[in-house]
Write a structure and sequence with these properties.
Distance between the termini: 51 Å
Largest sheet: 7 strands, mixed
Number of strands: 12
Strand content: 5-15%
Structural class: alpha/beta
Number of helices: 25
Radius of gyration: 33 Å
Shape: elongated
Length: about 700
Amino acid sequence: MSTNTEKQLNTAKLKHPKLRRALETYMCIVGTKNSFDFSEELEKNIKRMKIQFNDGDICATDFSTIFIGLLFPYYTDNLDENYNITKGIIGHEVGHIRFTSKRDWDMFINTSRGKYKKLAAYARDVLNIVEDDRIEFWMGQVSKFLKNAFYLLCQRMANSIQEEFDEIDFSQELSAEHKLAILRNAILYIRCTQSSLLPNIQSSEIMGYLKKIYPYMVYCRTSKSTKRAVQVAHKIMGILSPLCEEFNEAEEARMEGMYPDNSKGSNNPSENNSLVNSSNDDTLSKELKSLKEKIAKEVAKELGDKKPQGDSSNVANSGSDSDPSDQTNTKSIPDYVEDITERLLKERTSIKEKSEKRLEELKEESRKPITSSLIGEFMNSTNKSTKQKVAETLEDKKIVELKPEMVNKDIHDLCVPVFVERDEMTPFIDYEYSAYTEQFSTQIKRGANELSKLTEQKKQVLQRMQKFGRLDSRRLVKAAAFGAKDIFYKKKMESDQFDMDVLIFVDRSGSNMHQVLNTKNDTYLPRYEVNRMTAIIQHEILKRAKISHAVWSFEEMGVNNIFAPMIHFNNCFEKDSGLYLNHIEAKGRNRDGYSIAYAGEYLLKHGNNRKKLLIVISDGQPNGHHGYTGSLAMNDVKNTVTKLRKQGVKTIGIFTGDEIENQFFTHMYDNHMFLNNDNIHNLPEELRKQITLEFKEYLNSF
């Protein structure tokens, strides 16, 4: 699961507001394009739909929203290609809304539970596969772009399936369950190649089943309704009945479905009354295309479909069961299948070559720049004014000149402080950062609103202190001499904002690579990614509430103790200030006592008469070089935290490691919070609550 984070970051760019609006506009256009007749209510429903990205690997719709998993396995590292893949996914889901009948779908699902018993989910998969092929054919008539997008995605799926078949040892005895699983993927392969190829499987038994199934796949692809897809699904399950019976007799047998068990379709699906350029098989010869059309007609006769779809001549003659030229034809479906499978095997190499060539052309086309023009221009948003650059340079100088007094000097004699400059950090691109802020917008807004309310309370307290309180003799003199009205003693507070500085101090040690499970959506993230999300959320909350803050990371590499001041106190309110939080990763070790001393010194050097709050986020015990570990290191941290408390810095330790180590963390920090691997994903929300609590205590102090 280690690739989850990388893929999520690559595809998170799709969540850029401008790209999502463009995708929703496309959804509306392709969803209501009037190539076919459909109800006014269906058109309204499509126009009301939204797109929502999530952290899963499945794409689906509940007919009010299209859900797109950012871990969809066929996404790539190219934003333009991913954007076009997403348009294809949208076209597919809209196809179900336009062309799948909910009534026929639900009827099949209800029938399957009794008819196919333990294989009910398997039967649903078969229907899903044949119906997917059918709706993609019809959506390809709506849009040439979708026709190409489906081809590109399906060919990739087919190649992946064939690779799995190539790894199977067919010389071994296979169970009925294994054979059924192979056949399900083989049916998916036929669907992905648009019935232009059969998979290469080294099993005569499985290939025998596929030859019987193949003609029904050819027919269903261009059939007019879900009712026909249901007929085909039942027919395929009938062909597989010997394996199904063997499977159902096994007591422990259980077959899970490939697709989620969610209802599909519309109450009033589109009616396909016309056919536009139905020939999608650009890689096939004329003879193979002709054979496929004849097979489709023969299957249509068998299933009682009096208006089968095929080429344009079929539409013109749709009132009869077949073309007049076929009236004397005596060939049966098996005869046609033998002819076409023989030709497919003979022309397989040629078909594959043409397919690969088309695939490369479509891939190149899909990578042409388009997203940059939609977004405007991709910018790092790090262009700074001269004034801001000067201010940051001065702040950097102050930081480099920090020389805190260590509690235990001897154990840190070899340590060398190193400060990472901004130019050495890789910032987020603005749309990457926007993906985070959009995902956690609710938490950010709630936290900022709470702190803003507290700010308003402080303002009211200051106003009351102007009018009431203990008389100040010095102010009485001014009142007598100059007529000043402010005669009461009050604490020195000249700002309506909080006189508080917050430093979020993040452990960047290598142990933060450890993967933790988010039980809400069953996805894994490394701890450093959770730390990064937490820092982004808290920064946005504090920035919007106008509360002074900074964010640093710390790590140890050899004798070097490396500090990365990603956000300064003097630039924390700048628009681009959060972009450098991308620097939060996992690499070195952690010498916590030494590092905390530097963080505390930075807080103490920044302003007087201000409350100082240091928040340390770490995932384990201190573990540095040159014997800095165990009780020696833990006592060093405890003594450093105690010293800072006496100097006016309150330190809160937030521990995100294994629960067994929590006892050591409570020894080091008077104020601490523990989140184990099961609830680490609550860290952003828990920290928001803690900071709010600190401000409330501060408000009550005067």
